[in-house]
Amino acid sequence: MASSSAGNAKEQKSGRKRKRNSDIPGFAPLLSSTPGVTSQAPRAINAELFAASRALEIKNMVRAITEADKISGGKRVFQTLPRHMRRRAMSHNVKRVPVRVRQRAAFEMHTPTNKPEIQKKKSRYHRRQPKNLLEEYTRRQRKHVWLETHIWHAKRMKMIDAWGYRLADHPNDKGFRAAYRAVKNNCILQDMSYYGCIEVTGTQSQIIQAMRHLTNQEAGLTIAARCYLSGTREGNVMLYSFDQFPHGAITPVSFLWRQRTRTETATITEKVQHSDKHELQQQHVDDDDVTKDHVSEANCRIHEKEADSQLWIWSHPASFSSVFDAITEACISVGKTSVEKDSKFPNVVEKDGIANPEQLDQGTQSIPLVNDIEHSELKVISHRFDLLRLRLTGPQSHALLASTLKLFTGSKPKDSEDKSENNTLHKEQSTTFCNDKGINSSSLKWWKTSLDSPSDSLVQSTQSALWDKLKKACSPSVLPPGCVIGLTVDDPRLYLPVKKTSIASATEGINSEDSDSCDDTEPESSDLINSADQATSKLEKKQPSFEHVVTHWPTDVAGSRIWDQSVRREVKDTKMPEQELNRKRSELLVPGSPLDLKPAEISHIPVLLIQQPGCSGASRDTGASAGYGSGWDIILPSGWAMAFWIAFVYRGARTGGLKESQTLALEQGVPFFPNDFPDTPAGEAYNKKSKEDGESQYSRYPPAKRPNYDKLGAKSPFTPPWRELVKDWSTCEATSSKTAETISDSTKSSTVATSESSQTDDSVVQPLYVLRSRSKLSALRNYVLRDKKPQKRGSKHHVMMSNAPSSLDDLSSVVKDDLNSLVCVLVRMVNRNVPVPNSALAIPSTEDTTKLVKCKDIAGPVEPLHKGPRAQAAEKSLRNSCTREIVGFVSSGHFSLARGCGFGVAFCTLPGLMKLLSCTSSTGEAVVLVRGPSTQQYRFAYLTIL
Amino acid sequence: MADRSSSNVVKKRPPQKGQKRRNDIYVNRKTDFAAQLERCQKSLDSSEQEVRIHGLGAAINRAINLAMQLEQRGQGTVELSTTTSSVKLVDDFEPEDDDHEEYSKVRTNSAVHIRVYKKPLSQVNSEGASKTAT
């Protein structure tokens, strides 16, 4: 028993061992229990199992060995040494390497095989050779499109990749306030050539018919509006996908009809044009309040007769292709259409103004969609790289333009070449370098042909007369909004100031010259306010006074040959290269004296000037003063950007990039594309990108160094969650409305129906859109002012007030179809703080408002931290996730220098906004709470419906 | 003329100003009064011999107020000369639908131009002397 017990004990013991052994994989379990030391060791090894279990170790070992062996492994011998054996400067000094591996180390040191071949940089001299530089530029342009002014910008501005272009973001100097001041007092210059132009040609009625599918009158004046048809004004319109209004917003575009005043084919046109002029003359005799109805009617008549109307549509590059596709689709639905797309990238390479002659004419590629192009009624052509657009903003931009643009003189119809030459010579007043009269008659310049045709020269003379008259204007904002002038100007490089001047001195020069040349503007009478009496006395003397021109804009000055592709190409091709110009300059006897060229050598460029109205003085509480942000857009044929750009910069224009456009839009209180257009594809892309960027930046910080958005109750801190918000509000509202009233089975009840059936796919079925219907927005606005009416806005705004809803029920009946919509609002902070993007707008509680009424300086409520039981309970909708109900989000905002307070563009859901408006006391100004994503503090802000 | 009956959006253009010199001060109602006064005073204290204060429409009161304050501050060294004028303002009427033309109307508004100028030094001295004599 004892032995057996002992054996048992042993067995148990060995059993334990066995157990342990058998635990280790690869050890064969012992069959019999043999006492002794040997029993400790395994009898056999299952090689397969053993190897399998050691596979990782073996792999590691093999890798270590191969790495140690490999010379091309990327590591050198001393790098494979354990840390304690490493010494300083081992890579230099072989003797520091242990003897064991010293030989290898020495070998490695002298054969630098493992390093990738570093090509030796070519010398700067070599790189700067024009040919090599150009090659380098073309290589770099393969990825992104460069503007013509790229090199200039790249030296001075932060460049970013945006929408397939490489664009200037902001100047490298500190420019935020300087840019604001430039817009306010002087002039800021921006290259907007990244905006692409799409040309539609065909009969006007057909184009209008096509465009009717893409626009809607509800959202404002459309392309077919009568005031635009004559081509005297540029209009802005929101484009929607084919017949999808109010859904499917694409982009806001600006458009311009060609003014046909100079067609040689239609003699009728000219006759009517002459009658136009007569009418105009009669009008001048009439009193000041005469409209130009009949004139424009006449113009409309012309257009209906004319077969080929031309329409330019300028689109932002973020939406260019979708606009092009939409227009093509619309045109195809109307009639046979041929389509000309642009090549993906412009092959024109410009380096500081020097064009590459071999690659000049590859602007567009024709891709006919329809076989019979001859029979196609409509034509959609992309002029993306054929036209340039420079933007001057600010009151001084007019004076700057007036001093920069030297009009092509030679406008008399029977003006011979000699005379024009004489003219230029007189103007130059430098007869020392009088050239011989040999005029290159082999190539007939476009401006010569245009001089020969009487209608053209007539138009030109009226244009230049108008421009002379307008020199008096103190700012572009005194001119009719969106007015267009076509001009023919001389090469601006010939009149370049010797050195860069300030804008005041540059424009002073032109003013003095002005008073010299035209005697009608005496220095005293230039001040209109000061000497109104003198001005009126002048008015009698000179027929169409400045004021008359400004109120009764002539209808025949917008024509320009820039609309002709052939002229554009010719102007581009015949441009004198910068090199040649510099050579001629170097031959001058007195350096710096103005260059005197033969008249045939001087290029004459057709340009279109388009006034940008800026802030309207409608005194809605956008805050910025009237005329802020007004300026001129200059449309040029391609190839001429640098020439004009330098001319403007040398006369003291400040330059800006994309960021300046953005701040300018915000200061004006208008939404900026694509940031503030959440319902467009481009806006969605922007939101997506900003979310990605924000998240990646957020994840780079350690938790202690970044805000805990969960605790702060910010559900989507990087991008406004529009869909979720709209879904929350529309479903809630729909259910409430369902209880309130019986659902009618019209189209609008589909939202209600879907929300009834399944709340989840509601947002999918009904995508959000931004409310742009003018009547509905004005109803909303009037509801805000419902109690303010009798005091202030009595008689003046009776038209707007006529459809004013007085109660909430009326309002909700007006907008009951638009539960899924967002409304663009402006928020202006009551006290301090800035509405940063992605801040939440919330409805203030009654205590909040009473507190605010009591003391205006009150800070506002504080959101408690979302933690503990509160956080657990907070699995609610986005709308109710915080203590105050969330109605919307800020899409862009910062400190506004024009207003002196924080200011932002935000969007509210329509049901939420209505609730907010009904909650607020009717003091005339709605107050909303704004809370940034990284703060607990709510702040008060005034809300204005845009 | 049918346009007039339909609804329009009124947009007011800013008034045409003359060439702005450094001593021209256009008065508005938004800017803080003290700041405007300080601006005038600064301009007057500099090498400028005169300041022109322009007030249009509702800002006339304020322009006059400014000028009076300057006169008072000047303690007899500053004089005013006032002219009035009518300024033509342009309102643009934009139609709300496509079928109508836009048109613009001219209305006039009254303006005041006050020249605040330093009295010639001899005049000031003689006045001061006579004052002390009396």
Automatic annotation (TrEMBL), chain A:
PANTHER family to which the protein is assigned, alphabetical: RIBONUCLEASES P/MRP PROTEIN SUBUNIT POP1, RIBONUCLEASES P_MRP PROTEIN SUBUNIT POP1
Task: Domain (POPLD): give its ranges.
Answer: 631-722
- Stretches the record annotates as Disordered: 1-39, 507-529, 677-715, 737-759
Question: Which regions are flagged for Acidic residues bias?
Answer: 511-525
Protein species of origin: Desmophyllum pertusum
| GO cellular component terms, A-Z | nucleolar ribonuclease P complex; ribonuclease MRP complex
Superkingdom in the source lineage: Eukaryota
Taxonomic lineage of the native organism: Eukaryota, Metazoa, Cnidaria, Anthozoa, Hexacorallia
The broad enzyme category this protein falls into is hydrolase
Name of the molecule in the record? Ribonucleases P/MRP protein subunit pop1
What InterPro entries does this protein's entry cite?
Answer: Pop1 (IPR039182), POP1_C (IPR055079), Pop1_N (IPR009723), POPLD_dom (IPR012590)
Principal place where this protein is found? nucleus
The subcellular localization recorded is:
Nucleus
UniProtKB/TrEMBL annotation, chain B:
GO terms classed as biological process? rRNA processing; tRNA 5'-leader removal
Q: Which domain of life is it from?
A: Eukaryota
Principal location class: cytoplasm
**Where are the annotated coiled coils located?**
none
Q: Where is the composition biased (Basic residues)?
A: 10-20
Q: Which UniProt keywords apply?
A: Cytoplasm, Hydrolase, Nucleus, rRNA processing, tRNA processing
Q: Is the keyword Cytoplasm assigned to this protein? A: yes
- List localization entries: Cytoplasmic granule; Nucleus, Nucleolus
Q: Does the keyword tRNA processing apply?
A: yes
Q: Which GO terms describe its cellular component?
A: nucleolar ribonuclease P complex; ribonuclease MRP complex
GO MF entries:
nucleic acid binding; ribonuclease P activity
Give positions of region: Disordered.
1-28
- Tell me which InterPro entries the record gives: Alba-like_dom_sf, Pop7/Rpp20
Relate the protein's function as given in its record: Component of ribonuclease P, a ribonucleoprotein complex that generates mature tRNA molecules by cleaving their 5'-ends. Also a component of the MRP ribonuclease complex, which cleaves pre-rRNA sequences.
Q: Which family does it belong to?
A: Belongs to the histone-like Alba family.
Summarize subunit and interaction data from the UniProt record for this chain: Component of nuclear RNase P and RNase MRP complexes. RNase P consists of a catalytic RNA moiety and 10 different protein chains; POP1, POP4, POP5, POP7, RPP14, RPP21, RPP25, RPP30, RPP38 and RPP40. Within the RNase P complex, POP1, POP7 and RPP25 form the 'finger' subcomplex, POP5, RPP14, RPP40 and homodimeric RPP30 form the 'palm' subcomplex, and RPP21, POP4 and RPP38 form the 'wrist' subcomplex. All subunits of the RNase P complex interact with the catalytic RNA. Several subunits of RNase P are also part of the RNase MRP complex.
PANTHER family, alphabetized: RIBONUCLEASE P PROTEIN SUBUNIT P20
From the Swiss-Prot or TrEMBL record, give the protein name.
Answer: Ribonuclease P protein subunit p20
